[in-house]
Amino acid sequence: MLFFLTKRLLMMIPLLLGITLISFVVIHLAPGEPTDLQTELNPDAGVELKTRLRAQYGLDKPLAVQYGLWVKRLVKLDFGTSFSQDHRPVWDKIIERLPITVLINVLSVTLIMVVAIPIGILSATRRNSSFDRWTTVLVFIGFATPSFWLALLLMDYLGVYLGWFPVSGIKSLGFDYLTTGQQVWDVVHHLLLPVMVSAFGGLAGFSRYMRSNMLEVIQQDYILTARAKGLSEWAVIGRHALRNALLPIITILGLSVPGLIGGSVIFESIFAIPGMGKLFYDGVMMRDYPLIMGILVIGAVLTLVGNLLADLGYAVADPRIRNG
Amino acid sequence: MKSGCLLLPLMVMCLLFGCNQQDDYCFEEGQAHTPEVGDTIIMGTIADASNLLPMLSTDSASSQVAGQVYNGLVRYDKDLNFEGDLAQSWEVSPDGLEIVFHLRHGVKWHDGVPFTSADVLFTYKLLVDPDTPTAYSERYKQVSQALAPDPYTFIVRYKKPLASALISWGMAIHPEHLLAGKDIAQSPLARAPIGTGPYRFVEWLPGEKIVLERNPDYFEGAPYIKRIVYRIIPDMTTMFLELQSGGLDQMGLSPLQYARQTDSPAFRRRFNRYRYPAFAYTYLGYNLKRPLFQDKRVRQAMSYAINKQELVDGVLMGLGQPANGPYKPDSWPYNANVNSYPYSPQKAKQLLSAAGWVDADGDDVRDKNGRPFEFTIVTNQGNDQRIKSAEIIQRRFQQVGIKVKIRVIEWASLLKEFIHPGNFDATLMGWTIPIDPDGYNVWHSSKTGPGQLNFVGYKNKRVDELLERGRRIMDQDERKKMYDEFQQILADEQPYTFLFVPDALPVVAKRFHGVEEAPSGIMHNFIRWYVPVNEQKYQR
Fold first, then answer.
1. Is the ipTM of this complex over 0.90?
2. Where would I find the beta strands (DSSP E) of A221-323?
3. Residues A26 and A147 in one domain
4. Which structural domain, as residue segments, surrounds residue A70?
5. Is the Cβ pair B247, A41 closer than 8 Å?
6. Residue B207, SS3?
7. Fold exhibited by the domain B280-503
8. What is the pTM for the complete model shown?
9. Which residues from chain B sit within 8 angstroms of residue A30, using beta carbons?
10. What is the pLDDT of residues B165-204, one digit of tens each?
11. Into how many domains does chain A fold?
């Protein structure tokens, strides 16, 4: 087991380097440069200024040298300084956006699981019943609905017309004056709409997946055996079928680990949530290379770790894999 | 920070609010209330600020905030005339080569340190320092000598007179005592500025909000509104919903929101809407290096074929006006007596036929020497008004026998791959209109190189001459003569078809009193806005 783990961890290093190299080259291939925001179509900016700014950012060096310097810093866990006009350390910019993004994603994934798993089980055990059909229609409506559109409708009706929820943002204006209890409620109140909207779209995939897993499992011989033993339906489904049907979910969860730090630009823009999606998007638009690379590296690491965790989780959950 | 947003592309949102300026004229008599201190104004902004050291940022969100925190030496008043800011008065020598600024006494930085001419000299040195990553250095390099003979006098000398020299001193003055000897790019002031302005910096939650608080010691008198909160809401629709739900007090409306969604009594009970021409125009620029557009008659024909009023009605919901030249219709350099190319497909057809473009093969597209009149309009992604304009123009051109394709390209790619290498036929873009009329960088024949702003390749000897003289004359009436002729030549030659000037459409919650619309916008007297005590919404 330890050997397996070490081997997997070591294999991640060249993989990570490969990912960063490709990303680095690709983002530099895109037309435009970080200095453009200051110099493009700016009558006050002469050629001399462009050259000077490029030199200040180190953009005048060959690409290979730039990559080398970047890796050298990365080894020391230094993500460098942002090329945007704020000149802040990339790490600071990422860290201040991370908590809210992770919070929303964790809540949303939890909500999806809490709702989708029971739907999947019930749909499978009552296959072709009216419940099965209606939930199928419902989750596919959720899947097909553009989240920005749904969000705007809910904001207009629940936020403006009824006034039940704040329209956007994550805190009220007088947040600092509230007691701790009120502060928690304030954040919850602000997050209800965004979490609901982001979970709604994710229900379909998960519940359908759960349903098909469950269908497969309940046709197995050991379920027949369990039933033959005279176990209650509850015990058959809950104890014997569910456990086996949940196995593949581990893989999906593992794959969703990098998704936890990613956000959707559209979603974050609409709810005015200062999250990672908007940060990354703005970074790309400004060609802020260090920031883009910083986020990509974290994403790549989390993807690799997520895969590893999924594999490990599988081994823990399934004795056949562990021993084989 | 007026200098910050003079000529950047139309993407800039500061237009919606005009450029921030404060004004020290007296409050008009006869109002129902006496001004009261208190309350908070929450302004919506579409993008977060980047850097609150004004010389390091070029984005409008930053200059909007910095405009309340810092002052320059001079600024434009509400009618766009010069007035003193940190300078009480100034003298320009008769030959235009020297400006002497007399600074205000008793002005203090927000941390209590007195402001002196040393700060001005320091700001100048910082601007021309090659290690400062600023985009504004160019115009300060024209200065041959800068002196601070005593704490309240600042003198600059130029080698040649420069008409825009005075307003270049509208640049925010940076504090010497906090920045001297330090790397400005790493200064904490970029995130927590200290200025001399009417508002002090309180906090900045990145991507969320920026909070400012009134400076009770402000030299023009303390502002009435206690606090400004800039809320960052990247989506225009959300911003509008937030406004309706009471979460915002001020924002700029889109034409659609102004025309269709705010024209109800319920909305008007809570908000005041304002409308005035923005400092910007949209144009269709022809690549004059292409043989297709070298004949003046062809360009004139295309201008006749476009119905500008239709663009204003269709794209701006009528909230704008047709443009005839590169200046704002209510500003002093504007020349109203030029050919405005009223919509006339007949004239367009005549001119095209006269230029040799006739439909010989009967396919509804004109041709000449076997080559059909066909070209592509490129414009940038993300600006719906430009894309819609291009589509309407496409249809009008088709009616006179010109076939047009439209390509919408991401901003950076558009500039790098198409505009700068001259690799385009025609482009639909916009300019912001600077208050100073100097159009040297956009129209002079020396600015046609790669990456320069005369990317359509317009070359005219007389225009060059007028532009060279115009920027060296200090007298406004004399200058106007140069620019009047310049506009006449442009109107005749039509290197661009000037399309329209949109209106700025700000909206402010009704509880704010004292808001006054002027050529410069509504923000010029912001420090005199107030909320009567019984209407105040935020107590803390």
1. no
2. none
3. no
4. 2-75
5. no
6. coil
7. Dipeptide-binding Protein; domain 3 (3.10.105)
8. 0.83
9. 412-413
10. 998 999 999 999 999 888 888 899 999 999 999 999 999 9
11. 2
